[in-house]
Amino acid sequence: MSALVQIMSVDFRSCHHRTIPSDLLGQVPSTQPGSRTQNPRPAGAAATRHAAMPAAAALRATEPLLLPSGLSLSPRLKLLLTFFRADLTVRPLDEWQLKSALLAFLRDPPLSLPLLPDSDLSVHRLPDLQKRRREEPVASGVLHVRDLSFLRPRKGDGEADGMTAEQEEEKYIEWRSSLVEKLEGIELNLEGVKFRMTVEIPPSDDFRVMKKSWENFYSSELLNSRNPVRKIAKRPDTIVVRGVPSRWFAEIRVSSKPSTLVTHTIFSALGKIRTLNIANDDELEAKEDVSTKELISGLNCKVWVQFENYDDFHDAMKALCGRSLEKEGSRLKVDYDVTWDREGFFRIAQYEPAHSRLGERDASASVHGRKKHYTSRIESDHRKRFRD
Going by fewer Cβ within 10 Å, which terminus of the chain is more open, N or C? Predict the structure, then answer.
């Protein structure tokens, strides 16, 4: 294993302290005078740690999840919009007019989304409209519905008091499907010019679609095994989160680069972590800044998190799907992209050949988008801090 992987792929299995189960807290014997047995950990601290672990498992579909470092996961619905011409006109497209007409449609009955601010709907005209064919889209947009409080059960309601988390999730999915069905295929008439709109839920925002994808992947892998006698059913254990601000995962007043310790602390709220890796998300930044053709490196980061068991992976993926990352004191709402690792990032990194620092600096190859020179900079920063 190279020095590069040894630094960033930190094994945190030794970091988890042994806690006393809640049902045995009352059976811990007291320390007798003269005994060499150390005082046990306070029952309250052990119970608090034990109760904090299943927070992601008990999370409801419309509830936010508080994370360390002032971060939180807020539920929201994200829809991808695509606009096509519905008539033979070739008049120029007015983005502001299209957005205003769509906002009016969303806020009026039968949809009735009065708490939808203008900033939660974005419409962008696609380039080279005159060169596009009739069946090709002319504009795209993103709609966010962040206020989902009307879907939460109200206190005092007899029916809501007995609603389970599964029933609340089914209610949310039913409402989401109804909204998509009402928006799919509508026509907007802008001063005699008609546009047809299609709606799509991003795969990374639909947990059921995500779960179906890894079940189908490992099922096909099992069926395609060359040795049917030694077939072993596999399940994923690693999530990949990209497009999150690097400063939110950095140590305050120390560096603007993401810290392994801070990142581990944040994702530990979702489950027990085996190892993780952090890298610059240069590919996403290059795609977003394609208009200026300039690469702004270091703004976003990409995180691989491997959990110790499948249940923690499952609950973490469910908590991350369909939510935005927010930080206390900031108005920014980050719509990250989350998926599961189907290529075995840590398994490949384990057998990665060692490279010299000069080779890492000059090499242009990367492993799944992870730039090696970024990891070497993390290493130098840590050594400098420890020498100080």
Answer: C
State how far the Cα of 56 lies from the Cα of 267, in Å rounded to an integer.
11
CB of 375 within 8 A of CB of 4? Answer: yes
Q: Is 180 helix (H, G, I), strand (E, B) or coil?
A: helix
Query: Cβ(340)–Cβ(310) under 8 Å?
Result: no
- Contacting residues for 326 by C-beta, under 8 A, at least 6 apart: 71, 72, 73, 74, 332, 333, 334
Tokens describing residue 148 = 């989902």
> What's the pLDDT tens digit per position in 131-151?
778 789 999 999 999 998 888
Cα distances (Å, whole numbers) of residue 98 to 188, 196, 208, 261: 8, 11, 32, 46
Render pLDDT for 59-115 as a digit per residue (tens, 0 to 9). Answer: 988 999 999 999 999 999 999 999 998 888 778 888 999 999 999 999 998 888 878
CB count within 10 Å of CB 53 equals: 16
Measured CA to CA, the distance from residue 236 to residue 239 in angstroms comes to: 8
CB atoms within 10 A of CB 362: 10
pLDDT at 135: 84
pLDDT (tens digit per residue) in 14-69: 444 433 344 433 443 333 333 333 444 444 444 444 444 447 888 988 999 999 99
What percentage of the chain exceeds 70 in pLDDT?
A: 67
pTM higher than the cut 0.90:
no
> What gap in Å lies between CA 171 and CA 162, rounded to an integer?
14
Tokens describing residue 363: 């090499």
**What CA–CA distance (Å, rounded) separates 267 from 55?**
12
Q: Is 72 exposed, middle or buried (0-12, 13-18, 19+ CB in 10 A)?
A: middle
Give the end-to-end CA distance of the chain in Å, rounded to a whole number: 28
Secondary-structure percent of the chain, ordered helix, strand, coil, rounded to 5: 40, 20, 40
Q: Strand 238-245 relative to strand 273-280: parallel, antiparallel, unpaired?
A: unpaired
SS3 346: helix
Q: What's the chain's Rg over C-alpha atoms?
A: 25
Q: Which residue has the tokens 């040894």?
A: 6
Cβ proximity of 83 and 138 under 8 Å: yes
pLDDT in tens, 311-336: 999 999 999 999 999 999 999 999 99
Question: Vertex 140, ends 340 and 173: CA angle to 5°?
Answer: 50
3-state secondary structure of 193: strand
